[in-house]
Amino acid sequence: MADSSTTDALDVAYHALRVRDRSERELDQRLAERGVDELAREEALATLRRTGLVDDRRFAERRAAALAGRGAGDGLIRHELASAGISDELVEEALAALDPELERARMVVERRGAGARTARYLSGKGFAGDVVGAVAGESGEELG
To answer: Is residue 106 part of a domain?
Structure first.
């Protein structure tokens, strides 16, 4: 049976998860910021993993898809997932589930048009330089 500090930790975690899906590390940090001791955090996170409320694989897949849907390149997605404490292996699996970066860059160029501004936009959104160059070559216009 969970003690009151674990129950308090679970309450904080449930509240945080109501707003959006979070990685295990994000929840651990949130609990630590609220003054929850390490043992109670570990017990709460174990309960959340066991019940499926915290799943870093699911988090990575959903977050990567959301970022890609907002025009992010692989570099930005990698950075965001790593910042959330997602392992390199899960990051790569999440990226593999997305449309290829080149296809996503083409869609951005179709929406925004070719040009230097679009090239800067793609670079700022974490698209690889070779991808930006490839879309520039396809468009026949200078992107950068």
So the answer is: yes
